[in-house]
Amino acid sequence: MTFKEQIKQGIPQVLPPKKEYDTAINHAPKRKEILTDEEKQLALRNALRYFDKKHHEELLPEFKEELEKYGRIYMYRFRPDYKMYARPIDEYPGKCEQAKAIMVMIQNNLDYAVAQHPHELITYGGNGAVFSNWAQYLLTMKYLSEMTHKQTLVMYSGHPMGLFPSHKDAPRVVVTNGMMIPNYSKPDDWERFNALGVTQYGQMTAGSYMYIGPQGIVHGTTITVLNGFRKIGKSPKGNLFVTAGLGGMSGAQPKAGTIAGCITVCAEVNPKITQVRLDQGWIDEKMTDLDALVARVREAKEKQEVVSLAYLGNVVDVWEKFAEEEVYIDLGSDQTSLHNPWAGGYYPVGMSFEESNEMMANNPELFKEKVQETLRRHAKAINKHTEKGTYFFDYGNAFLLEASRAGADVMNPNPTLGREFKYPSYVQDIMGPMCFDYGFGPFRWVCTSGKPEDLAKTDAIACKVLEKIMKKSPEEIQQQMADNIRWIKGAQENKLVVGSQARILYADAEGRIKIAAAFNKAIKKGKIGPVVLGRDHHDVSGTDSPYRETSNIYDGSRFTADMAIHNVIGDSFRGATWVSIHNGGGVGWGEVINGGFGMLLDGTKDASRRLKSMLFWDVNNGIARRSWARNEEAVFAIKRAMEAEKKLKVTLPNLVDDALFKKI
């Protein structure tokens, strides 16, 4: 069968042969056993409902074995034989260009070079899934190949509910992931209901088909590192940034450190992903000995090198060793997947990767104790460095939250609302006031032709647009504009592409709209192929997350999720090609609600109309909420937006004189 025929086939009527478990691939750890005997039977019934009754007798023992061995039913037998990657859009079968674009993005999320655990359909973060099983993938791709521009595919936490009649301006796909009743949104609830096959953790851009590999956060991480050094009044050159994690999102850190121009030490316990990042050129050197690491860092400091060093081992050992050897750390953070601390997101110190995975599955309570003990040690070591002047920030991975739950010394001795922890979130001190409140966030695009030359052309178009905008930009956002122009000019030489021909660029509403409009004109003239627009949910308005995206909201509303819901609803009727809303994300299940979108630019008038309507809302609804919280930069930004668009009328806050409270 051809590739197109396999896509159109969906779930095969004749069972394919069983597949061998490929040990060369990076696999998800075994999930802990949490289902009762009755629930296990229910999980098997749920899995078998995708298949004709005549196959149940053969598949039942196989699925039972998967559930017992891996803690989930992945249906490995149905994993496609064709290579998984984002093909040029015209290689996909279909009746609708928008549906083909979504197929491009789904396959990119599952590309072996992109996905963290591709055979388990997990893109990043240890549990960020595109689908729960391979039957869902096959059925979804089949529906997309059949879809017309008057239908919408409804995705229910990985399950393709079906095609429903709609209209050309409706989203082609509506995605939800993990939208639990609030009282059923604890970590063990995810374990249970995911094992049952009825919900999944979509992370931010995994389950919404908008992940573009670690490049997706390289730009934001670069801005964070640059502004972190600016905050402490130092040049990055010759100075040290220490962090942890080389997986999906966290893999961006060493590359970002190199682009920013510092020395980066990034620890990682997983040998496979460490080697992948070395092979991809995202790290310069891999080290396994702490004494050798200390010597190498000292050499790099002396020579003022720009270099990224991966330490294969636990980051706690690095913090402790550097304290013992008096290696000064200028910036410190952590980007392990602590939103998922008990299932592979964070590993105990003093244990091998293999020992940890075994304990995680077979003795989860002891594993949890070891993780919390490690968090206490981790925090203690960090405190030793910060007492000497190190600037440490929480990278929005729930490090401080989980450390506090473990009883670590991370609480502010003089807490105020929103500043309960000893250390700030990077959103509180850097990304919030410097970027999000002004409307700058991670706008991204993918060239569906698959041609590197198309990506180069879009880079040039975006740079030209930004340079033109910057000439008339107010002083308040000149630094943001300059950083973005510097970024896009160096994008090609930094070799950021992993998987699809994609790019990310921090831009505000004006920049996003004008760049998108310029792309659409270029597509119409035949200069480039169709382009998919999107963004990370980690943005101005898509996500309500009290310990990350909205951690710099101090009016008491940071635990509300109205903004994310408003965002996805508004995107839906303003022209997005697909929309998504998730429970969970970078800081954990039950800790955040986040929404995203994808939009196909095809050179048409319809695309031009949609991009202007949707992108304006997608940014400014978040700025409006931030300005109501009395964020000074957001008040400035929303006033600019109202001046530019007279139909925009936003309620502005009246500030209260602090002196009044001294009289009562």
Automatic annotation (TrEMBL):
It comes from the Bacteria. Pathway: Amino-acid degradation; L-histidine degradation into L-glutamate; N-formimidoyl-L-glutamate from L-histidine: step 2/3. Residues 84-210 form the Urocanase N-terminal domain. The gene is hutU. This is Urocanate hydratase. Binds 1 NAD(+) per subunit. It catalyses: 4-imidazolone-5-propanoate = trans-urocanate + H2O. Residues 436-639 form the Urocanase C-terminal domain. Keywords: Cytoplasm, Histidine metabolism, Lyase, NAD.
